[in-house]
Amino acid sequence: MNSSLSSPPQHVGIAGLGTIGRALARALDQGELPGLKLGAVAVRDPSTAQDWMRTHLSQVVDCVDFEALAARNQWVVECAPSKLLRAIAEPALRHGRKLVTLSAGALLDAPDLVDLARSHGGQIIVPTGALLGLDAVCAAREGTIHSVTMVTRKPIAGLQGAPLLLEQGIDISDLKEPLCVYRGSARGAARGFPANVNVAVALSLAGIGADRTEVQVWADPTVTRNTHSIEVDADSASFRMTIENIPSENPKTGRITALSLIACLKKVNAPLRVGS
Asked: Which domains does the chain have, with CATH numbers?
């Protein structure tokens, strides 16, 4: 008998029950991820979370703190504001858990989390998210990558309130034409736009690092989708790719981000796995 079918399901704890966390909770509740089961959630407002679960899920799971989330679940999925990454990640990795994080940008300021994972047998997993082509970038890295450039264009609503815009007093509310609001490294983009360019950090982690990956961020009133174009020049291949993501109810997040997370977890027990 296949051991994956006879083994009890592994529990998944979700930190954050916003747009992405709710999509994952529904998928787990509906049995769309074989071998995985929703175990608990960690949220800021337990009463609101419980009300939502009663309405949308077949069962209401416990609302716990980050420590209990790590202790009770083999998988911890971070769908929270990036400033909470360390608080979520440290207990999960100390327990040797699989940590799936969407806050790739916050990892740049927390390299010690990788050491923590290594020393306790844990693992940090960054899904593809709203980008494309990370498999090709990872493959190219096994040779020599000469350059990686990413250009992000977002509707105005998707960039409103970004720290860099507030710090520099850049008002994009009445833009009539595209404006480049940032040009520099992926590291700088992550600090200036923590809710917008986790994709740039994921790209840099897959490739040549956050300081060598070049990023442009455009506020563009002419687009309705979050658009990312990447260009890679390597000794094995040169390629250009563009993806236009339809925003979710949260304009800073594309619908495909939640689907990417679900696809990532589906690979855990899949009898056929496509892509590296």
From this structure: 3-129+257-266 (3.40.50.720), 134-253 (3.30.360.10)
